[in-house]
Design brief:
Elements lengths: L1 E2 L2 E2 L3 E3 L6 E4 L10 E4 L2 H9 L6 H18 L3 H12 L6 H15 L6 H37 L6 E5 L16 H8 L4 E6 L7 H11 L3 E4 L4 H6 L5 E4 L3 E3 L4 E4 L2 H10 L4 E4 L5 E2 L5 H4 L8 H4 E5 L5 E5 L12 E4 L6 E4 L2 E3 L3 H7 L10
Helix pairs in contact: 1-2, 2-3, 2-4, 2-5, 3-4, 4-5, 5-6
Keywords: Amino-acid biosynthesis, Isomerase, Methionine biosynthesis
GO molecular function: S-methyl-5-thioribose-1-phosphate isomerase activity
Function: Catalyzes the interconversion of methylthioribose-1-phosphate (MTR-1-P) into methylthioribulose-1-phosphate (MTRu-1-P).
């Protein structure tokens, strides 16, 4: 997508041909800053500290982290060390494991002296594939928005509510949940987005930054406003992303998603989840019981990041001294509350049967 009219991806190889550059998303939306990663450990830090975030992007950066590791040491021992360090960075997003498993298996079967070149090639493939997957998600999601627009009075606006950031900043390009919105905007459909601020990390600000850069009308709202808007008919559909989708269609997304799904269900508002197939964890069935929920530092809950009138960026404490904070990063929305899953292959029901049929070649091992 674009920043200030210039096309931009979220991760790329620098001009030197081996270091990896990323946008520092902890500085957005107030400042655009590029960080250069020159080691596997720094790539791990970028993922852990949320310099990059979003399940697809985490996977791509992890693949590049493996490539950086191969510039240091191509031995079997170091290959295993790179995998072990990167896999521990964040526990919930399955794309991390998917990318690392794919990279590890590939490198394990090539000669040591070939591993560096193969690792960079594979990381580039994973990044390019993500762009293609996300654009396809956008095309399929566009059809849903077209259908809703056709049922409204001529010239009406389609109001979409989204939670967290599932735009191009959460992927390599295009995004998941926001990709259909970009496609609709480019197709000339009048679309407006209700953007949840998504406490405590306020990833909704990244969504607002993206939409503003692309010229898409949007309104930033507090997380608890969505139900009110649905009650008054001001939301035509919800589209969110997911960090892990189970084999039966449960979705794990940023904390607060479950409550939005409940509100949508109560008000007969369609609730769609956009995801590329690497986000499906075929080994997990019951999302509530089986998906590990990341608990992050309480400082993220007790402090708010922003910019003061002088232009200085800082964290501001909002909690009484000594307050214990619970910072659960994700929740699980059961499949029964999901209207449909928007994937690169089309839209399907959030059911085990529908997923098995759409992705027969990617079924859980025990079903093959």
């Amino acid at each position: 997508m674009k920043i200030n009219g210039k096309h931009q991806r979220t991760v790329w190889v620098a001009k030197d041909g081996w270091t990896v550059e990323i946008l520092d998303q902890t500085k957005l939306p107030f400042e655009i800053e590029v960080i250069q990663l020159d080691s596997m450990k720094l790539a791990a830090t970028a993922i852990r500290e949320m310099w990059v975030r979003g399940a697809p992007l985490i996977g791509a950066v992890a693949a590049y982290g493996m490539a950086l590791g191969m510039t240091e040491d191509t031995s079997d021992e170091h290959l295993q060390t790179c995998y072990d360090v990167l896999i521990e960075t964040r526990p919930t997003a399955i794309n991390l494991k998917w990318a690392l498993d794919r990279t590890f298996a590939k490198l394990k079967n090539v000669a040591s002296e070939q591993r560096k070149a193969v690792a960079y090639q594979l990381a580039a493939e994973i990044a390019d594939e993500d762009v293609q997957l996300c654009e396809s998600i956008g095309e399929h999601g566009l059809e849903i928005i077209k259908q809703i627009a056709a049922k409204k009075p001529a010239g009406s606006t389609v109001n979409v509510l989204t939670h967290c950031n599932a735009g191009w900043l959460a992927t390599v390009d295009w995004g998941t949940a926001i990709s259909p919105i970009y496609k609709a905007h480019e197709a000339g459909i009048k679309v407006h987005v209700w953007v949840d601020e998504t406490r405590p990390r306020n990833q909704g600000l990244l969504t607002a930054f993206e939409l503003g850069s692309h010229g898409v009308p949007h309104t930033l709202i507090a997380d608890n406003v969505g139900g009110h808007l649905m009650q008054h008919g001001d939301v035509d559909l919800c589209i969110v992303g997911t960090d892990r989708t189970t084999a039966k269609g449960d979705v794990c997304n940023k904390i607060g998603t479950y409550l939005k799904a409940l509100a949508a269900y109560d008000n007969n508002v369609p609730f769609y989840v956009a995801l590329p197939s690497p986000t499906i964890d075929w080994t997990v069935y019951d999302g509530v019981k089986e998906i590990p929920i990341e608990q992050r530092s309480g400082d993220e809950q007790s402090h708010v990041y922003g910019i003061d009138p002088t232009g200085k960026r800082s964290w501001v404490n909002t909690a009484p001294a000594g307050t214990e904070c619970g910072n659960y990063a994700f929740d699980v929305t059961p499949a029964k509350y999901v209207t449909g899953l928007i994937t690169e292959r089309g839209v399907c029901a959030a059911t085990e049967q529908a997923l098995d049929e759409m992705f027969a070649d990617l079924k859980r091992p025990e079903l093959v």
